[in-house]
Every structure is written in structure tokens, then in C-alpha cells.
TrEMBL record:
Keywords: Hydrolase, Metal-binding. SUPFAM superfamilies: Metallo-dependent hydrolases. Signal peptide: none annotated. Belongs to the metallo-dependent hydrolases superfamily. GO terms for molecular function: hydrolase activity, acting on ester bonds; metal ion binding. The keyword Hydrolase applies. This is Hydrolase TatD.
Length: 308
């Protein structure tokens, strides 16, 4: 079984994570632009970060047989630094049209301030004009009201709900998001909030139409194998292979594929790695290490091992 994780912050993760993800069957990932745990103070920090998402990080993923895509945007937390946010807005049009950029994201509300609202709206217009999908981060506090507001504002700005992926849903928000025709993405947080047990129940109740599973793994306590682990649990709990395939692979491809930047052939036609390659004259190898060259195998024992 193949998987796509459409929300994972790999710049914060290790090469061990990449190797484990490949072994578990993850073939493609989407890395949304977000904040770094502490606020940036200069425009150049945004520029270099966006450049790394379409440059070094994509190369690093390729060295482990994983196709890397990203969404580019100004996150809600840093929208509150208005002087810097203004400068970032001028930068975004230069990056959203780059190869491998599958949407504007992750954008939306955190504390639901006036500044967050302003830059969320400006970026919705940017996405609509560029005909790109939008990846919405919904607030962790006041989740339900914040999610409804995010959708109301997207509709007000004439976004097609079919172009909008609403992320970090839970049992309280899923019905509204699906009823309005948006994509409903769920982040599996280890031990808290949305665990994979709860995800199984959601798919049992709501089916697989427009539902997407992701890990949102980042610099915090998180699990880069959340998508394949949830798939394994779904299989164990009697959810059909077809439904698992949709929520852990196909729906991510169908939604973000609307960008024209992400096709199944990107990974199906390209199954070998060459770790002797370099980018910016830089390699993932350290002195004396032997590059892997050729086809990488997935671990056939994964499904039976991972759920124990
Ligand atoms: Zn995120």
C-alpha cells in the first residue's frame, strides 16, 4: 500500500524519519510553510525558508525515494507582526508559482486577531487569482467557531470549496466542513487530541469522501509515521482497502493535484534513488558512507509490525 502525507514539516525531521517513512510506504509528502517555534525578525528569513522548501528539502526527500511538494504562505502567528507581514506579502507571488508548489498554506487563524484576518483574506485572494488550492490551519483554541469562520471567509472571497483543504479537524467540525463541500483533513497527534483510534471512528461514521489523514509532524512531539500507522489500524478494524486508499493517498492527490504540480507519475515513473547526487555541491552523505543507488524496497512486514 502506498501513502501520501499531505502535511509534514520535514525541515524539522531527521534522515532516520525519511528512511522509516519510505520503508512504511510513504511515496509523497507536502510540507506547508509554517512558523519555526520562534518568530522570524527579518524578511530574508522567510525568503531563505521558502527557498529551502523548494530546494534543499525537496532534494533531501528525493535521496530517500520520497517526492516532496510544499505549500507557501504566511502563517497565522507571524501575520501578527504587521510590518514584516506586509513585506512577506510582496514575496509570496514570487514563490507560489515555483515548481512543486501545490498550494497557498498553511494560512488561517491562530488567536483570530484582526491582523490574522487581514492576511488570511489577502492570501485567499492570491490563491484564487493563481488558481491554487488553499491549505487552512484551523485554530486549536475555539476550534469550532474558528473553523466555521475560516470557511465563511473563504466563501466570501469566492474560493471554490473544492479548492480548499481545511486542516486539523475533529469530531466537532467534520460535519460542517463536509456539508459545505470543503476537504476535511485530520492531523493525528500521538497521545493527545486526534489520535488514530478516533480517526478510525470518524471514517466509520463519515466514510472516505473528501477526508484526508496527515501527521503534521514538526519540531514538537509528533509522529512522521502517523499516516501509515492509522492505515494499519483501519485495516485491523475492518475498514475497506478502498476507503483507506482514499483517506491516506488518493484524496490528498486529488485535492492538491488541482495545482497541476503533483501527478502520480511523479513517483510511479521514478522509483530509484542515487545518493551520490549533490545539490549546491552538498550531499546527504558524510565521510566514508556508501551511497544507496537503485530501487528502494518497502518493508512487507510493516503492516503487521506497526500496530503492535
Ligand atoms: Zn503544520
Amino acid at each position: 500500500m502506498k501513502f501520501i502525507d499531505p502535511h509534514i514539516h520535514m525541515t524539522s525531521r531527521t534522515t532516520d524519519d525519511y528512511a522509516a517513512m519510505q520503508q512504511a510506504g510513504i511515496v509523497a509528502i507536502i510540507e506547508p510553510a509554517f512558523w519555526l517555534g520562534q518568530p522570524r525578525t527579518e524578511l530574508g528569513s522567510f525568503k531563505d525558508y521558502y527557498s529551502s522548501l523548494i530546494g534543499w528539502e525537496r532534494f533531501r526527500a528525493s535521496q530517500f525515494g520520497i517526492k516532496h511538494y510544499c505549500t507557501i504562505g504566511l502563517n497565522s502567528k507571524e501575520a501578527n507582526n504587521e510590518a514584516l507581514a506586509e513585506e512577506v506579502m510582496d514575496l509570496l507571488p514570487l514563490f507560489i508559482c515555483k515548481e512543486g508548489v501545490v498550494g497557498v498554506g498553511e494560512i488561517g487563524y491562530d488567536d483570530q486577531t484582526a491582523a490574522e484576518d487581514k492576511y488570511y483574506r489577502l492570501q485567499l485572494d492570491l490563491a484564487r487569482e493563481a488558481n491554487l488550492p488553499v491549505q487552512i490551519h484551523t485554530p486549536h483554541r475555539d476550534k469550532k467557531a474558528g473553523t466555521i469562520r475560516s470557511m465563511d471567509v473563504a466563501l466570501e472571497h469566492r474560493l471554490d470549496p473544492g479548492m480548499v483543504i481545511v486542516d486539523h479537524n475533529n469530531e466537532e467540525t467534520v460535519r460542517d466542513v463536509l456539508d459545505r463541500g470543503f476537504w476535511a483533513a485530520f492531523t493525528i497527534y500521538p497521545n493527545t487530541k486526534m489520535g488514530n483510534e478516533r480517526m478510525v471512528e470518524i471514517v466509520k461514521q463519515y466514510g472516505s469522501e473528501r477526508i484526508i489523514v496527515n501527521s503534521a509532524a514538526d519540531w514538537g512531539i509528533s509522529d512522521p509515521l502517523a499516516v501509515p500507522k492509522t492505515a494499519a489500524l483501519m485495516l485491523e478494524r475492518g475498514i475497506s482497502i478502498d476507503d483507506i486508499h482514499k483517506v491516506c493517498y488518493q484524496n490528498a492527490l486529488d485535492s492538491f493535484g488541482q495545482s497541476g504540480q503533483m501527478k502520480e507519475s511523479d513517483w510511479l515513473d521514478n522509483t530509484t534513488v542515487d545518493q551520490s547526487e549533490k545539490l549546491f555541491n552538498n550531499s546527504i552523505l558524510r565521510g566514508g558512507q556508501t551511497p544507496t543507488i537503485g530501487e528502494l524496497k518497502t518493508n512487507p512486514l510493516f503492516e503487521s509490525n506497526i500496530i503492535r
